[in-house]
Design goal:
The chain has 2 domains: 2-36 and 321-431, no CATH class; 55-288, Spore Coat Polysaccharide Biosynthesis Protein SpsA, Chain A, CATH 3.90.550.10. It is 54% helix and 15% strand. The chain has helices at residues 2-33, 44-48, 68-79, 97-107, 147-157, 176-180, 182-186, 204-219, 239-244, 255-263, 290-311, 318-348, 354-381, 388-397, 401-431; strands at 56-62, 86-92, 109-112, 125-131, 137-142, 162-165, 171-172, 191-200, 233-238, 274-285. A 10-stranded mixed β-sheet has the order 3-4-5-2-1-6-9-8-10-7, with helices on both faces. Helix 12 packs antiparallel against helix 13. The longest helix is centred in the first third of the chain and has 32 residues, at 2-33. It is elongated and about 80 Å long. The chain starts with a helix and ends with a helix.
């Protein structure tokens, strides 16, 4: 019994020491970056009127679940972008007839015949419409399919070198596409994907998570030679790289995250391409309910494990796999979970007092709050920061996040691991 007590106490102390070291390192790096505002790398006014800017094809996946008002606002916002050359491809599936009639009237759609090269296999296309109000806008009515199928359809129809997907409900400024394309414009031959954030609104917990994701981009990913995207993002892809990779996988939990990992794996013949994750905020979206948020966390965890399986095949990015991603997404959550479980068992067995057990959990909450405070500091240094009163409110609520969302995060990680393991087993059965 004494041996078990000593092991439990030592493991708790060792876990707290590890978490303290990680937290202090993150805070030091964040404080060094804090207070220095990000400035645009180029003169955006000059770029917006330049004839030499690389054109972009913007894909908008539209399903019956999308709100018609939000969809219309997103399409209108895209057509109002100040980017010099782009097109908007709306890939519509399973829309009610009333919605289709409204779209045809609103955008003056006319059926057109269009010949294109189907480089990627997709569900059949029923009809293609061109807007007579704005020649840059095209609607594609296709058979239903997974999310990746709509993306692949957009890649097939895209006329320009870079392609990005923007979901309905995202709000953004007129210069959003110009800012997102900055890494690709600086190195069009070397950048195969440029990732920008979509900041999540809604409740305080989602805002804190979004702020930490931004801190991750500014503090960690900009120093690495590659990147994986945040949970909410807009990604600009080089079309030829997508075609060379065979398009987005319909079996991936997150097709875009899986594609980032695949483009950086050893299976690609061209290893010169880079995925760049910036701290730029493309736009904003409303938050989701708790149930929807948990489902998103499960998908994210599953997608990360699937991405790691690809990245492990890359020699060049082995440091990424064995270092930051595994430490942040596997080791650190496991250490936190073990500390909570060990403290609960030790308290129930009488090895720790109730005060000491609660103190251990409070230390974990304070650790998460300290990282969130650093993230809020960096968010205030980025363009268009939230009002000071919102930042103070988020800072006051940060210590409660661990208690309010800790169990949901643990469930999401376990469920994501199980889903990833099942999908891996199904893939092995298909190959055999």
């Amino acid at each position: 019994m004494l041996v078990l007590q000593a092991i439990a106490a030592a493991s708790i102390v060792a876990g707290l020491v590890y978490l303290a070291a990680v937290t202090v390192a993150a805070l030091i790096v964040a404080m060094r970056c804090g207070g220095r505002r990000e400035e645009p790398a180029d003169d955006q006014h000059a770029l917006s009127s330049s004839r030499f800017v690389v054109p972009v094809s913007v894909v908008v996946p539209l399903t019956a679940a999308a709100d018609p008002a939000q969809s219309g606002a997103t399409i209108a916002g895209l057509l109002g972008l100040t980017y010099p050359a782009f097109e908007v491809l709306v890939i519509a599936e399973e829309l009610p007839s009333a919605v289709w009639e409204r779209l045809k009237f609103e955008w003056a759609l006319e059926a057109r015949e269009l010949f294109y090269r189907a480089a990627l296999a997709t569900a059949p296309i029923r009809m293609i419409y061109r807007s007579t109000r704005d020649a840059r806008l095209m609607f594609v009515h296709k058979e239903p399919g997974p999310a990746a199928d709509a993306l692949n359809c957009g890649v097939n129809l895209a006329r320009f070198r870079y392609v990005c997907a923007i979901e309905p409900g995202v709000t953004f400024g007129a210069d959003a596409l110009l800012r997102a394309m900055t890494p690709a414009l600086a190195d069009p031959a070397g950048v195969v994907a440029a990732v920008s954030h979509v900041e999540t609104g809604g409740g305080a917990l989602q805002r804190l998570s979004s702020a930490r994701s931004l801190m991750e981009s500014r503090v960690v990913w900009r120093r690495l030679g590659t990147a994986l995207g945040p949970p909410d993002a807009v990604v600009l892809w080089r079309r030829d790289a997508l075609e060379l990779a065979g398009g987005f996988s319909i079996h991936a939990a997150d097709p875009q995250l899986e594609m980032m990992a695949r483009l950086q794996s050893a299976t690609m013949p061209d290893d010169r391409g880079r995925v760049v994750r910036t701290a730029d905020i493309f736009g904003h979206r409303d938050g989701t309910r708790v149930a929807g948020r948990v489902q998103s966390m499960v998908r994210r965890q599953t997608a990360l494990l699937q991405a790691l399986a690809w990245l492990r095949t890359s020699r060049r990015h082995r440091r990424l796999v064995s270092g930051y991603v595994i430490a942040a997404e596997v080791i650190t959550p496991c250490v936190e979970g073990w500390i909570v479980a060990a403290a609960a068992l030790a308290t129930a067995a009488g090895w720790l007092s109730w005060f000491d057990g609660l103190l251990v959990v409070a230390m974990l909450a304070c650790r998460r709050a300290a990282i969130s405070a650093a993230a809020l500091l960096l968010r205030g240094a980025l363009p268009d920061p939230p009002p000071d009163r919102h930042l103070r409110r988020l800072l006051a609520l940060a210590p409660l996040e661990f208690f309010a969302f800790g169990a949901a995060a643990a469930y999401a990680r376990v469920a994501g691991f199980r889903a990833s393991w099942r999908s891996r087993g199904a893939a092995l059965e298909q190959t055999s």
